[in-house]
UniProtKB/TrEMBL annotation:
HAMAP family: D_Ser_dehydrat. Its EC number is 4.3.1.18. Residues 93-391 form the Tryptophan synthase beta chain-like PALP domain. The modification N6-(pyridoxal phosphate)lysine is found at K112. It catalyses: D-serine = pyruvate + NH4(+). This is Probable D-serine dehydratase. SUPFAM superfamilies: Tryptophan synthase beta subunit-like PLP-dependent enzymes (SSF53686). It is an enzyme of class 4 (lyase). One of its GO terms (molecular function) is pyridoxal phosphate binding.
Length: 440
C-alpha cells in the first residue's frame, strides 16, 4: 500500500469517523483568480442564458411563474434552529444562521434544478441555433412549439444519476421533447423512478452504484451521434449552471441587509456528492466575495470522496471503495465514491475545508430542522446543518489563523439545504421518525 493511506486523515476516513478537515492549499483569492480555468465572464454567460430561457420556463412550468421563470429559492433566517443547535451542543453560536432553501427549488425539488436544467437548456439552445431555428435575440417561448419538440425528438439525452440529477435532467428534457434516458444507480429511490417514467422518461435501473450508472450512460451515448451525454463526473456546463446561485445569493443578502466584507465574514456549508453543485457554488461565491467567504463541503462518513481526493492529491484517481469504504449511506444524493475530475483540482486553492457526517446525525439534524423551522429535507439536504457547530469547535484554529475570532458576532452562516420537496409524504414521515428516535 502507498503512503497516503497512513495519514491520520485517511485512517479516520477508513474508520468512518466524523472528521473536520481544513484545506492546507487554500490560497488568497487574488493570487489564484487568474489561474482558474473558468472566470466571472463564464458565470455571467450562464446567467444570461438562464435569463433568455426564463419566459419559456415561466410558460411551461407554472411553479416558476411567480419568479418570472427564474429558478430560485429563498434565503431565510433560522433562529429557532440556531437556538436548538446551541442547546444540543451546549455552545453559544454567535452571529446569525440562515438557510438557503434549495430543497424547495421549483421543477426538481433539489439543487439539481440549477446545474441539470441549465445544461439541458444549453444543449437545446445550441441545437436550435445550429439548425437555424433560433437567434439569441428571439423570444424563447419559441421552444414551446411543435416544431422545436419535433426537432428535439430526434435527439437523445443520457445521464447517470443517484436520483436527483436524473429528476432534473429527465423532467426538463422531456418537457422540451428530447428522447431522454436516465441510468439510475442502485441507491436511487423508487418514487424518483416512478415519477420519471410518468413523464415519459426512459429509466434504466442498475444494481451497482453511481459510478457504474454513469459509465453505462456514457457508453450508450457513444454509440449514437445524435446522443448527448450529461457527464456529472466532468461537466463544466453543470458547474457553471450551479455557479449562478452566487449572483442570486449576493442579491438576496443585499435585500436582507446582510453585509459581507472584511469585518463581516460569510460561512457557507454545502453538501457534496461528486462535487459539481457545491464546487460551482463555491467558485461563484469566491468570484463575488473573494476572501470574505469561507466555503465548506459536507460529506457522509460512508462516501467521503472529495476529502479523500483532496487530502491525497489523487482527486478522481482514487475512490473510497479502494480503501474499503462501502459508499452506503442514507444520503442518496451524496452516495458518490469518486469525485469529479476537475472540481477537486479547482477547489484546491478555493475551498476552506470539508467535514463528514454520520447517517445517524443526518437523521437527527433532519428531525431538528422539522421541529424548529418546519422544513422537511431529505437526508442529503441536512448535511449542512452541522457546519456552524464544526466551525465553532474543530474550526477554532482556522478561525484564529484567519483573524476571525472577534468577527464572529457579525458573521453570517448559511446552511445550504439541497433537497427534499418532492419526497413523498410517507417517506418523509419515515425520515423524521428515524431522526426523532435517535434524538431520544
Ligand atoms: C446531488 C446532490 C448534492 C450534491 O451535488 P454534487 O454535484 O453531486 O456534489 C447535494 N444534495 C442533494 C440533495 C443532491 O441531490
Amino acid at each position: 500500500m502507498t503512503d497516503y493511506i497512513h495519514t491520520p486523515v485517511v485512517q479516520s476516513l477508513i474508520a468512518l469517523q466524523e472528521i473536520t478537515w481544513f484545506n492546507p492549499k487554500k490560497a488568497r483569492f487574488d493570487d489564484v483568480q487568474s489561474t482558474l480555468p473558468l472566470q466571472m465572464s463564464d458565470m455571467l454567460d450562464a446567467s444570461d442564458r438562464l435569463t433568455r430561457f426564463a419566459p419559456y420556463l415561466a410558460q411551461v412550468f407554472p411553479d416558476t411563474a411567480a419568479t418570472n421563470g427564474i429558478i430560485e429559492s429563498e434565503l431565510i433566517a433560522v433562529p429557532a434552529l440556531q437556538l436548538a443547535l446551541s442547546d444540543v451542543m451546549n455552545l453559544d453560536i454567535p452571529g446569525r444562521l440562515w438557510m438557503k432553501c434549495d430543497n424547495q427549488l421549483p421543477i426538481a425539488g433539489s439543487i439539481k434544478a440549477r446545474g441539470g436544467i441549465y445544461e439541458v437548456l444549453l444543449h437545446a439552445e445550441n441545437l436550435a441555433l445550429a439548425k437555424g431555428f433560433l437567434k439569441t435575440s428571439d423570444d424563447y417561448r419559441l421552444f414551446d412549439s411543435a416544431s422545436f419538440r419535433e426537432l428535439f425528438s430526434k435527439h437523445q439525452i443520457i445521464v447517470g444519476s443517484t436520483g436527483n440529477l436524473g429528476l432534473s435532467i429527465g423532467i426538463m428534457s422531456a418537457k422540451l421533447g428530447f428522447d431522454v434516458t436516465v441510468h439510475m444507480s442502485s441507491d436511487a429511490r423508487e418514487w424518483k423512478k416512478v415519477l420519471l417514467r410518468s413523464k415519459g422518461v426512459n429509466v434504466v435501473e442498475h444494481t451497482a452504484d453511481y459510478g457504474v450508472a454513469v459509465a453505462q450512460g456514457r457508453q450508450e451515448a457513444m454509440q449514437q451521434d445524435t446522443a448527448y451525454f450529461i457527464d456529472d463526473e466532468d461537466s463544466k456546463s453543470l458547474f457553471l449552471g450551479y455557479s449562478v446561485a452566487a449572483l442570486r445569493l449576493q442579491k438576496q443578502l443585499i435585500e436582507q441587509g446582510v453585509v459581507v466584507d472584511e469585518n463581516h465574514p460569510l460561512f457557507v456549508y454545502l453538501p457534496c456528492g461528486v462535487g459539481g453543485a457545491p464546487g460551482g457554488i463555491t467558485f461563484g461565491l469566491k468570484q463575488v466575495f473573494g476572501d470574505h467567504v469561507h466555503c465548506f463541503f459536507a460529506e457522509p462518513t460512508h462516501s467521503p470522496c472529495m476529502v479523500l481526493g483532496m487530502e491525497t492529491g489523487l482527486h478522481n484517481a482514487i475512490s473510497v471503495q479502494e480503501l474499503g469504504i462501502d459508499n452506503q449511506t442514507c444520503a442518496d444524493g451524496l452516495a458518490v465514491g469518486r469525485p469529479s475530475a476537475f472540481v477537486g483540482p479547482m477547489m484546491d486553492t478555493l475551498l476552506s475545508g470539508v467535514y463528514t457526517v454520520s447517517d445517524d446525525n443526518l437523521y437527527r439534524h433532519l428531525a431538528i430542522l422539522v421541529d424548529t423551522e418546519n422544513m422537511p429535507v431529505e437526508p442529503s439536504g441536512a448535511a449542512g446543518v452541522s457546519g456552524v457547530l464544526r466551525m465553532l469547535t474543530a474550526g477554532r484554529s482556522y478561525l484564529s489563523d484567519h483573524q476571525l475570532d472577534d468577527k464572529l458576532p457579525q458573521a453570517t452562516h448559511i446552511m445550504w439545504a439541497t433537497g427534499g420537496d418532492m419526497v413523498p409524504q410517507e417517506e418523509r414521515k419515515n425520515y423524521y421518525q428515524k431522526g426523532q428516535a435517535l434524538l431520544r
